[in-house]
């Protein structure tokens, strides 16, 4: 381990008389700067980082090579067929968009609700969001048959006066995802400005000085700048908040607006948002627990933070479980035999294995978070959260593939089998995600120093 | 042109390409490009050769249609009279399948034929066509076609010229002149051609000792023997389904494999109108699941080997009923299905004397054929619904049976063997022996469109002309003489069978045109005896009319009065089985081998359209399988896609199991025509490392019959083989199975005649009940045309004519077995086949499904780039060049008719060496690129064609003027297309019919294709009992 690790301390005890501290150890304004900034300032990356980076960049290269192959050959390299015209790429898209939910939620919504504990984890989660949305964005773009005309989806003025079809949810999706990606990126970057300036000020090499100098946009830390910064941050938070809800609502419209049995349900928007938050927080835990261990951030990202996230995972997991139950109830209550069959087929048909994987991972596994011992044991929460991520991927698989494979006419029923390319591209997207993430860990402040400082007791609420 | 008879034989008449090709200068030029042993081009046509050929043949295009004038090349720089480039022209033609002619109309654009359809004017076929007809054109442009003459003196094959061949052959013929033809043998397929008959006579006159063998695996001798047994002479039996109120088929398939299927389908369908005075009733007794069985009102599955016993029992009961004159009593309701159906059939037959038809399949023994002839006679059907004519296959000249020929070959009695467009080295139990003996023969020639298995064993291979490249003639089932005219010069300089035969006459090589003319015009001037019921044309103008029409009027065979042999009852006592008719014990397994619905006896193996068209019942593509019922499979301990080993007398084949509902217990069905080793790049070619498609089961055949009843053993091998079906097979999970059962009643609405009479609008009530459907926005109004379609499920029999026609018309690519397995077949029009009820005795429904052109099209709303939009005539247009391929439309289409180009399926067409293949494309239809969606357009190009013509001529479009490709092909006339705004149009009337319903219309899609519910006409007894 490169940095000294502080011992775990328990700040999860709820005693109404004494508020447990948000952070452990003896933190001062300068110790926090020192602790976080030094991680980004190391001359040589640790060996483990290098190994991880080598693996993930290789996977990233594989992903892009496969994209090249796909574009040169055709969509047929995947397992998609008729009736399952959307397969893994769309599953992966929704999966990654879902992951990308936690960041902005933590930054924006918890910020508006003045949840101070968010400060230790928001940078981390926001970075995860941006990278997840980047991974997500790749899939819908390359999944179209003629990717070279992808810009036709944008309402570009042209000599034919040919506009996109504004009735199509896919078009709404284009706007929703790009808006979300843009606002998330701005939010992340804006919040990082003071910290980038700190890195600039501490930089010892010329390259770092120039790079951080440009990146920090001339931040001096004057009161005026702070005033404007906080105003802008608040405004962006307000802007991002509805987007958190809208993006997955609109992604769910891709399904809900169509008439495929199993897709055509009104529950989809809240269900998708809950699922996205669920998977996003699970991903935060999955990444945070090893990172805080590895980079010695236990004093800043404390057990209490983790426990809070576990609680959110438990809550959203139950919402998702409730949604599963409601879908079944409505299918029965609605009396539409095609919808009834869609759900019976999910649970008992050829894809039952996928359905029950999903239910066990998403509904049963998080139930362990009722136990405080589980909520406060980092390895246990990682295991559960990885299961949740698996489950959430399967949820999207079940929705997309199972519904399509058997819709109205039994003559057209089919079975979807992924190709090797499908699998490798999904693995490759993880490579891209981790490549970006490792670069983030290496060169940018992982914890929002300025914001953490603002919740230290000595800041006195400033 | 004046008198034909007196005209000297102009050797190279109008076919100047031939002429050109035979001039030394041209030959030199050719051979510079392609050295004599031109092995550099084993696979396809090169670009240069292509340019040469096309330069010539396109120029020829200018002259099609008026063939009998001496004509010259005319480059297209000067437009020939009455020709507009790009405008379609239609010519009558014909071709033969296993000795029966089919009347065609061929569409040609700029001198190249692109589409084949039935000849509407033809008195017998009435414009019907089947999948074979539709796909026949593909062979014309097949890059695997034989592109030249080859001699194999040693191990290597050397390219030769026609002159070299003619020289070699003439010296051989001279040799036989001395021996009066001893040692000279011809093998060819069955043919009804008068031209060939005439040549056969001429050759027989010159070489009296020659051997003439007609090898046709799909024709058995039992029908002829049966009629000889019954009437003392071999006759052809014609069944009139137009007059028949009761039809009973015993192992017979008048809708599928029968040579007169098209006519019978049409007549049958015409009598399925529930609003007419009467509707026929169809009974089917069969082991397999045929098209006929699937459309029968009552179907009884029994082993083919049990059919004779059943027929004998029927005979006994019918005889008793007729003798006693009493009303037939119904069987007790607790009895099994068989006696109850039998009783119903007997009562129907006795009540409808002179109005019923009984028919039996070609695999049944001669005795059964004789019994059925006797039954038909006994019921008064002969002369009414059943007529007899001469049997044209029954030749005037001695014909050697194929086994005898093989024996003679093995005995070294044959020195010269000429194989004409026949492939005996494949597909027969004697093939192996034939091939071995063939290699020993001193001089052997194979003429064929392909270099097939037989060609590989012969010394000489010469290319045969495709039927669209030459003159020809044949006779349809009823005897009507039909005439083929060439639409394009032979692409590879091939000669017809008749031209090759003319080399053996004293006249020497004669053009096919002269030969056909002589067969019709100048027979009288010759000394030999014309064949029975030859057709003669009296004048040039009659000949011209015949060529134009494609047939000779009133040339059908005259009905023959036949009487039962007086001692028939003694030789074949009523109800008493002879030895050959004995049933098997109940537990024994029989094999039933028939020709395949897709590749026939293997002759269409290299036809991609046919390989990929799903079998009507199994929906299997690119394969054959051992088809058996669920109980048989269970008994044998095998399941779907298990590979089994089937052994009969030490002969063994291994193939996968296909579990299909409705196959008789202990009967296993196999299809011929697979496992070819030298078919080509589609059907399998071992030399090119292309695996054979399917497995050749012909080694199992015995004594011509396809029913194998002795010592059949079937053992699992433990292996598995994936079968590429386009629809879920029977082996489906319980949840899915139940759901299909729940939905079927709504998707394919079926009622009985009684139900229909009581509640004519029953179909509307079979659908789901839902609140009134409202549109969320103002709907488009159609002031001009509003196109629509109606498909009468009561007429549709589920054959594949429409599917292949659509493929041909709309340039739909084939994708191959792997892609079908992946679920990516491209057919715009598919025929859904559903089973309902007991898996051992199911009801079957066929339903053609193409784009419904919904008024509220779900696909249109979800396309982000507006690539699929509504036209102002109500069509759901697909704009290929706007499509980016999100495939959202395919997801949202409840009918799942949208097809996506997952790969560049047409990529090979862009390669110069595949330019020949490209000629098949319909120039009016865009060839779609990779990454775009496609689907049925209601043949928008045909709509536009007619609209443009109507506009130019300032006229309105008549109802029925626009005919979609599927509609045109349909032999049953189940599809109607037209303008819904015209309230008098056939389609508007069909939409208003009581029986009409929209599939899934509860989704508020407002489909423009409506179905007319299927009406069954069960026997009242059985209907009451729910049998």
Question: How would you explain this protein's 3D organization?
Answer:
The complex is a heterodimer of chains A (462) and B (1027). With 462 residues, chain A is mainly α. Chain A has one domain: Up-down Bundle (Formate dehydrogenase/DMSO reductase fold). Chain A has helices spanning 29-41, 47-73, 88-99, 101-112, 122-142, 169-202, 206-215, 223-256, 268-294, 303-334, 337-348, 352-364, 372-375, 378-405, 420-443, 449-454. In chain A, helix 8 crosses helix 9 (268-294), helix 9 runs antiparallel to helix 10 and helix 12 packs antiparallel against helix 14 (378-405). Chain A is globular. By secondary structure, chain B is an alpha/beta fold. Chain B has four domains: 1-217 and 396-552, Rossmann fold (3-Layer(aba) Sandwich), CATH 3.40.50.740; 222-390, Dimethylsulfoxide Reductase, domain 2 (3-Layer(aba) Sandwich); 584-720, Barwin-like endoglucanases, CATH 2.40.40; 787-1020, Alpha-Beta Plaits, CATH 3.30.70.20. Helix content of chain B is 28%, strand content 18%. Chain B is built from 33 helices and 39 strands. In chain B, the strands form 13 sheets. Chain B has a seven-stranded mixed sheet. A four-stranded parallel sheet of chain B has the order 11-10-9-12. In chain B, strands 20-22-21-27 form a four-stranded mixed sheet. In chain B, helix 6 (194-206) crosses helix 17 and helix 7 (222-231) packs across helix 12 (366-378). The longest helix of chain B is centred in the N-terminal third of the chain and has 18 residues, at 162-179.
């Amino acid at each position: 381990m490169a940095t000294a690790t502080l011992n775990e301390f328990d700040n999860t005890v709820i005693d109404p008389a004494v508020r447990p501290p948000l952070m452990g150890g003896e933190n001062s304004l300068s110790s926090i700067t020192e602790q976080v900034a030094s991680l980004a300032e190391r001359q040589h990356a640790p060996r483990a980082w290098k190994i991880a980076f080598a693996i993930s960049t290789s996977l990233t290269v594989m992903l892009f090579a496969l994209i090249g192959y796909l574009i040169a050959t055709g969509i047929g390299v995947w397992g998609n067929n008729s009736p399952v015209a959307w397969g893994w790429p769309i599953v992966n898209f929704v999966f990654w968009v879902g992951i990308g939910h936690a960041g902005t939620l933590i930054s924006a919504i918890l910020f508006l609700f003045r949840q101070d504990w968010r400060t230790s984890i928001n940078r981390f989660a926001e970075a995860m969001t941006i990278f997840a949305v980047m991974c997500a964005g790749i899939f819908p773009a390359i999944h179209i048959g003629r990717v070279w005309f992808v810009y036709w989806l944008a309402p570009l003025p042209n000599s034919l006066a040919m506009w996109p079809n504004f009735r199509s949810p896919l078009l709404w999706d284009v706007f929703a995802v790009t808006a979300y990606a843009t606002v998330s990126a701005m939010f992340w970057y804006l919040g990082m400005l003071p910290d980038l300036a700190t890195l600039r000020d501490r930089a010892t090499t010329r390259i770092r000085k120039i790079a951080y100098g440009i990146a920090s946009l001339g931040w001096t830390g004057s009161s005026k700048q702070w005033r404007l910064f906080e105003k802008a941050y608040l405004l962006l938070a307000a802007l991002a908040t509805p987007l958190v809800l809208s993006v997955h609502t609109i992604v769910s419209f891709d399904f809900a607006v169509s008439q495929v049995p199993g897709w055509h349900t009104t529950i989809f928007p809240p269900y998708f948002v809950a699922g996205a938050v669920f998977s996003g927080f699970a991903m935060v835990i999955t990444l945070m627990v090893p990172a805080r261990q590895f980079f010695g951030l236990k004093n800043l990202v404390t057990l209490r933070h983790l426990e809070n996230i576990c609680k959110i995972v438990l809550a959203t997991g139950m919402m998702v479980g409730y949604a599963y139950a409601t879908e079944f109830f409505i299918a029965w209550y609605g009396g539409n035999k095609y919808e009834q069959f869609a759900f019976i087929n999910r649970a008992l048909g050829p894809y039952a294995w996928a359905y029950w994987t999903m239910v066990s991972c998403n509904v049963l596994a998080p139930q362990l978070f009722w136990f405080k011992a589980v909520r406060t044991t980092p390895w246990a929460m990682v295991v559960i959260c990885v299961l949740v991520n698996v489950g959430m991927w399967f949820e999207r698989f079940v929705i997309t593939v199972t519904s399509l494979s058997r819709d109205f006419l039994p003559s057209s029923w089919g079975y979807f089998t992924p190709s090797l390319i499908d699998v490798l591209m999904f693995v490759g997207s993880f490579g891209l995600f981790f490549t970006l993430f490792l670069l983030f860990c290496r060169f940018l402040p992982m914890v929002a120093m300025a914001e953490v400082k603002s919740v230290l007791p000595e800041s006195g609420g400033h | 042109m004046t008198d034909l008879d007196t005209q000297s034989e102009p050797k190279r008449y109008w076919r100047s390409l031939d002429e050109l090709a035979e001039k030394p200068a041209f030959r030199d030029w050719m051979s510079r490009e392609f050295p004599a042993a031109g092995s550099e081009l084993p696979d396809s046509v090169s670009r240069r050769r292509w340019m040469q050929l096309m330069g010539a043949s396109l120029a020829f295009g200018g002259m099609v249609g008026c063939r009998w004038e001496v004509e010259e090349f005319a480059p297209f720089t000067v437009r020939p009279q009455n020709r507009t480039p790009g405008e379609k022209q239609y010519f009558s033609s014909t071709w033969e399948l296993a000795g029966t002619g089919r009347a065609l109309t061929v569409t040609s654009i700029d001198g190249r034929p692109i589409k084949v359809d039935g000849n509407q004017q033809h008195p017998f076929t009435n414009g019907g066509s089947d999948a074979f007809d539709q796909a026949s054109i593909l062979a014309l442009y097949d890059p695997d076609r034989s592109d030249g003459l080859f001699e194999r003196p040693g191990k290597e094959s050397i390219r030769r010229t026609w002159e070299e061949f003619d020289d070699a052959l003439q010296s051989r013929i001279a040799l036989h002149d001395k021996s009066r033809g001893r040692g000279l043998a011809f093998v060819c397929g069955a043919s009804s051609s008068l031209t060939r008959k005439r040549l056969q006579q001429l050759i027989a006159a010159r070489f009296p000792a020659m051997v003439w063998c007609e090898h046709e695996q799909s024709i058995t001798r039992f029908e002829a023997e049966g009629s000889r047994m019954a009437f003392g002479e071999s006759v052809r039996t014609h069944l009139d389904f137009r007059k028949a109120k009761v039809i009973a088929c015993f192992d017979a398939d008048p809708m599928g494999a029968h040579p007169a299927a098209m006519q019978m389908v049409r007549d049958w369908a015409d009598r399925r109108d529930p609003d007419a005075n009467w509707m026929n009733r169809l009974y089917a007794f069969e082991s397999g699941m045929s098209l006929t069985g699937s459309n029968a009102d009552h179907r009884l599955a029994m082993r083919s080997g049990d059919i004779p016993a059943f027929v004998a029992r029927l005979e006994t009961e019918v005889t008793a009923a007729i003798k006693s004159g009493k009303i037939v009593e119904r069987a007790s309701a607790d009895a099994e299905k068989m006696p109850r159906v039998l009783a119903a059939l007997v009562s129907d037959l006795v009540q409808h004397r002179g109005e019923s038809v009984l028919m039996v399949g070609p695999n049944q023994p001669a005795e059964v054929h004789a019994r059925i002839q006797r039954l038909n006679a006994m019921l008064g059907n002969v002369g009414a619904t059943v007529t007899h004519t001469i049997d044209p296959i029954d030749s005037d000249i001695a014909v050697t049976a194929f086994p005898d020929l093989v024996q003679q070959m093995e005995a070294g009695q044959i020195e010269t063997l000429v194989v004409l467009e026949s492939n005996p080295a494949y597909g027969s139990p004697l093939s192996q022996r034939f091939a071995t003996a063939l290699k020993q023969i001193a001089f052997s020639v194979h003429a064929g469109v392909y270099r097939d298995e037989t060609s590989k064993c012969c010394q000489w291979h010469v290319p045969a002309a495709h039927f669209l490249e030459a003159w020809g003639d044949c006779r349809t089932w009823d005897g009507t003489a039909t005439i083929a005219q060439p639409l394009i010069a032979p692409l590879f300089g091939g000669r017809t069978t008749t031209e090759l035969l003319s080399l053996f006459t004293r006249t020497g090589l004669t053009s096919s045109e002269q030969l056909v003319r002589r067969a019709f015009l100048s027979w009288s001037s010759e000394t030999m005896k014309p064949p029975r019921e030859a057709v003669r044309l009296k004048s040039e103008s009659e000949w011209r009319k015949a060529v134009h029409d494609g047939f000779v009027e009133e040339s059908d065979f005259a009905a023959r009065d036949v009487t039962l042999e007086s001692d028939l009852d003694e030789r074949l006592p009523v109800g008493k089985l002879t030895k050959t008719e004995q049933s098997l014990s109940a537990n024994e397994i029989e094999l039933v081998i028939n020709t395949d619905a897709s590749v026939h006896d293997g002759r269409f193996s290299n036809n991609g359209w046919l390989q990929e068209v799903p079998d009507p019942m199994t929906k299997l593509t690119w394969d054959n399988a051992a088809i058996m019922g669920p109980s048989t499979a269970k008994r044998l301990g095998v399941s779907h896609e298990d590979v089994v080993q089937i052994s009969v007398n030490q002969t063994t084949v291994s193939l996968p199991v296909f579990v299909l509902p409705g196959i008789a217990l202990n009967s296993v069905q196999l299809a011929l025509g697979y496992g070819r080793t030298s078919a080509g790049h589609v059907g399998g070619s071992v030399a090119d490392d292309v695996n054979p498609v399917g497995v050749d089961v012909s080694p199992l055949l015995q004594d011509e019959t396809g029913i194998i009843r002795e010592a059949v053993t079937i053992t699992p091998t433990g292996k598995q083989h994936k079968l590429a079906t386009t629809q879920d097979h029977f082996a489906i999970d319980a949840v899915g199975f139940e759901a299909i059962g729940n939905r079927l009643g709504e998707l394919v609405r079926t009622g009985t005649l009684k139900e229909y009479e009581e509640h004519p609008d029953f179909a509307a009530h079979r659908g789901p009940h839902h609140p009134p459907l409202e549109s969320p926005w103002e709907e488009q109004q159609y002031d001009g045309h509003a196109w629509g379609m109606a498909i009468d499920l009561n007429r549709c029999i589920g054959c594949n004519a429409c599917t292949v026609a659509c493929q041909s018309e709309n340039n739909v690519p084939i994708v191959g077995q792997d892609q079908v397995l992946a679920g990516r077949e491209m057919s715009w029009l598919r025929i859904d086949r559903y089973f309902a009820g007991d898996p051992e005795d199911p009801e079957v429904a066929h339903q053609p499904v193409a784009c419904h052109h919904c008024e509220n099209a779900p696909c249109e709303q979800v396309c982000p780039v507006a690539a699929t939009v509504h036209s102002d005539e109500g069509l759901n247009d697909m704009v290929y060049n706007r499509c980016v391929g999100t495939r959202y439309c395919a997801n949202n289409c409840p009918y799942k008719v949208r097809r996506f180009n997952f790969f560049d399926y047409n990529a090979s067409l862009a390669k110069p060496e595949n330019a020949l293949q490209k000629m098949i494309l319909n120039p009016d239809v865009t060839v779609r690129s990779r990454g775009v969606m496609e689907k049925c357009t209601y043949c928008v190009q045909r709509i536009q064609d007619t609209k443009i013509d109507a506009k130019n001529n300032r006229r309105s479009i008549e109802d029925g003027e626009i005919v979609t490709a599927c509609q045109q092909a349909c032999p049953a006339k189940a599809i109607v297309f037209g303008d819904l705004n015209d309230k008098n149009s056939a389609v508007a009337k069909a939409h208003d019919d009581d029986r009409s319903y929209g599939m899934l219309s509860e989704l508020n899609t407002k489909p423009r294709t409506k179905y007319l519910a299927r009406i069954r006409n069960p026997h009242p007894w059985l209907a009451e009992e729910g049998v």
